[in-house]
Amino acid sequence: MKPLFITLLTAALLAGCSGGTTDLPEQVPDEAALSAPASDKADNKKEADQGASVSPAVLQAETADELAALPPGELTADFTIEGEASTWNGREVPETIRSAFLDSVKPAAEAAGEDSDALFGAIAGTLGTPSYSELVGWLAEYEPDFDEPLLPEPHEVESEKTRPAFPEKAVILLDASSSMLLEADGQLKMETAKSAVRSFGRIIGQKSDVALYAYGHAGTQNEADKALSCGTIEDVYPSGKYDAETFNTAVDGVQAAGWTPLAGAIRQAREDLAQHEGDITLYVVSDGAETCGGDPVKEAAAFVQDHPGRHVDIIGFQVDAEAESQLKAVADAGNGNYLGADSLEEMTGGMTEYWLPSDLDLSLLVYQSPDGWESSTALHHISERATLAKRAATSEKYRFMGAADLMLEKGLIDEAMRDALNDRSTAREKAHLRILDGLEEEKRNAVNSEVERIDAKIEDYRTRMEALKKEQGS
């Protein structure tokens, strides 16, 4: 009988699941910054004609997109997020830019007269925090992207031979050759494969030790890099107990790049596991045939020789006829199974029994829910960035207030103007904190809603499968 787990991997590839990532989005370009109102532009032109200028910087943002688009100050553009979020920032203009600030703001103070908004715009354009683009941009674009659960529907399976559902060691060989950079159903093959492997590891890792090898990830597909690419097989997750965070990090770190040393990958796994006498199954996820001159059929046969508990299962993802022929031969030589991820129906011809999930399979569905570590991690990332952005907004306010104090001290403004600028600084901070609070709540709700959707999908599957098992008396 074809084992459940090769079916699960195939189901994931068929579904074209996308993996989640936590990479920060590209920063909003300066061109996206909001323009000043037309009246301000007119005033600026008039003042420019008089030999002075007032910064057209936006006084405060009103939406998340506007907040992400606010440009940094001319003197603070290289300030770090960590520095901006520090709770030790005081009410002052940093000494390192104090002199430059006074030189920059003096003409604006003279030109602004009693117009506090114009002068505040100059201060914001000089001392505004650079943190909004990265932090708020990430929050605004974030959408939860948990791996879809693997929920294979009942299907016919061969009954010629049985194997344990969980081998003692499950060793995944992930093809990272350059062909995995091609798109399938609007997504890179590599991203679909990664999502399938992450989900697979989560399930099989509950009972089996897990290892992950990457091959084809070194060099490029150019002839000059062939030796490097063909000779690099890496155990990115050495055989051992499954740890979700470490395993997923290892999967996400694999990048498609070069040639396809399938034979070398099987041989490397055999050599590394030579001292293990228990059951081992290699799960090869590949979209093509050997391209490094090796003989993967011979290596698969060597892997299982004198070891009846060893198997080589192949999941062929969107492969052509020539590659499929070789991959099937590898599975046959390795006492394993081949499944084509692009045409599952073709692989079920001549089958006589229906597969239904076992009670154990159903009990393990809990591990497919993102509720727990995955959702907690997502919520933590949201809160972390929102908190950093809020602290940056507060640091910005105190820097603006320090600027007003400094200008008063130097005789550039009077107390009334200082108070007006401070009121403007406080209003800007409050507006930005309100946006950030709303954005944080929106994204936290999105995470919780996605968890509820996936959990409902799992529960529906569990209910249907239990009903079918009851009907069949299994």
TrEMBL record:
Gene3D superfamilies, alphabetized = von Willebrand factor, type A domain
State the InterPro entries in the record: VWF_A, vWFA_dom_sf
Entry annotated with the keyword Secreted: no
Signal peptide (residue range): 1-15
Ranges annotated as biased composition (Basic and acidic residues)? 40-49
Region (Disordered) spans which residues?
Answer: 33-55
Question: What keywords does the record list, in alphabetical order?
Answer: Coiled coil, Signal
Nucleotide-binding is among the record's keywords: no
Coiled coil: which residue ranges? 444-471
Domain VWFA: from-to ranges:
169-360
User: What name does this protein carry?
Assistant: VWA domain-containing protein
This protein's species is Bhargavaea beijingensis
Q: What is the lineage of its organism?
A: Bacteria, Bacillati, Bacillota, Bacilli, Bacillales
